[in-house]
User: Fold these one by one.
Assistant:
Number 1:
Amino acid sequence: MSDKSKAEKLKNELFLDKPNQWDLADDNLSKKVYDFSEEYKKALDQGKTERRFIEYSIQRLEKAGFKNAEQIDQATPGTKLYFNMRDKALVAAIVGNDQPAQGINIVASHVDSPRLDLKPNPLFEENELVYFKTHYYGGIKKYHWLSTQLSLHGVIYLSDGTKVDLNIGDDIEDPVFTVTDLLPHLDYHRANKKITEYVEGEKLQVLIGSIPYPDKEISERFKLGVLQLLNEKYGIKEADFNRAEIEVVPAHSARDVGFDRSMIGAYGQDDRVCAYTSLQALIDSEVAKRTSAILFTDKEEIGSEGRAGAQSQAFQYTLNSLHKKILGREPSLSEMQDFYLNTNLLSSDVTNAFDPIYEEVSDKTNSAYLSKGIAMNKYTGSGGKYSTNDADAEFLAYLTNLFDTNNIPYQISELGKVDAGGGGTIAKFFAKTGMNVIDCGVAMFAMHSCFEVTSKMDVYNTYRAYKVFMNKG
Ligand code: MN
Ligand code: MN
């Protein structure tokens, strides 16, 4: 053997190799990858808010034979059930053969995304135009929301208790709404502003109408014109907005990106790409040794606060209730403790894919890359590894071994360079319960923008990874 081939052999043996998965795909696999993304795009279009995604998920689960837990007294191996946590969060499971105290396998993701929320008193008229005032939700770059087509989703309770479900702007026949931007010709005064000050939060006002009520004698007749329309169509009065929860999101639908259609561009893929892939993985799962479960949280984008956020004890109550349904009695304290200590949870969330246009923010050897498989972050957080879970080597060894055995491509990465910024996930909140937790999900471009980009190959491989994880005894 020549020295060169010997060196090559040694290199192949010792070096870490993370091939681009498109290189390894035959026609059969490529077809599966493309086909898989079709229903995923529909899920993104139907599930643009946390409520919509929960609604979509329950439809899918019921079609696949999952029953609302309220209808089930005793769950036995093979029982498929879901807990609807007030339309904003969800736990669904296929009961396995093991005792719950031996632990279960959970894939957990969040179904909220950054957006604009209507203020409690949103409606106002200014210079013969009508607007909704908004308060942004989560980490947005405000300029992304200017001069783009927007739709409205949410619930509004009328004074008699009637629930109105607003859904305007996504259907091609619907009108859309917009936040106007300033023309460049008159934008010189903002030219040297910092990006964080370029658009003030109070300027994120949504244009919703411009025709007045015909009576010229009356004040605020433009606002009256719009309110009359809303009242005729939905029975809404101005005071009803005080009780409402209305979200403003991009109106465009999910699209293929690239001549080769290898990528998906859409709003809200953080984190519905992980929610969707786990949902599909659970639906396609068989009864296993351990119980397989998915869990969706709300409010991750504002720190997992509130009762549907990962910090809420509602998730432990719900998991305890699953435990109880499987046992047919209250679990004892030690059974409950063992349940949490023996449970494995993937905090399934997106991470940054190395973007050659902005390579300065990433450490090339510790970055996730597009189309190289599911991305696992041992830790997230910021600064000196603050505010993170930091999974232990034992759990990483377990998972990488599981993925290697099942031919699942994965990459272990950090979100960006040290001190370049940072971010958190739901991982650390579930780790507090004693579960084994690690972050893993899809790497993407333009996270938190109105048009986030993922690789179809990664979406499919993430689905495969979640399925293997959930079905592992
Ligand atoms: Mn996320
Ligand atoms: Mn996010």
Number 2:
Amino acid sequence: MNECVFCKIVDGEVPSKRVYEDGLCFAFFDKSPLAPTHFLVIPKKHLACAADITEADAMTVGHIYAVIAMLSRVLGFADNYRVVTNCGAKAGQTVQHLHFHVLAGKDFGSFN
Ligand code: 5GP
Ligand code: ZN
């Protein structure tokens, strides 16, 4: 039995505020937003973290970045946004299903 909360969100077993969905990926607003706009984009296929990405997933990961770019234009933040992927507990990963945070609507400054 799959206990992954993000797989359950994809399946509709756990409710979410959906931003976008297609055959490869699902986007939904983060329940604890860290910016005025904060949503997550996940592959529908379960991968635990970025370190599990292989060449077989290259199309999906590239597609996710294209979806993020499309959403940034549609939602009006194409000029200023940040994409973050945490991999491993010490990097801040709390959900073991690969996800791309999309943050926008504020001045992030330089990355440090
Ligand atoms: P991480 O810390 O793993 O990089 O990010 C996990 C993110 O998932 C956190 O920002 C957290 O707020 C969000 N999150 C965890 N569980 C849920 C949930 O059930 N629904 C939604 N919408 N977001 C969640
Ligand atoms: Zn999962």
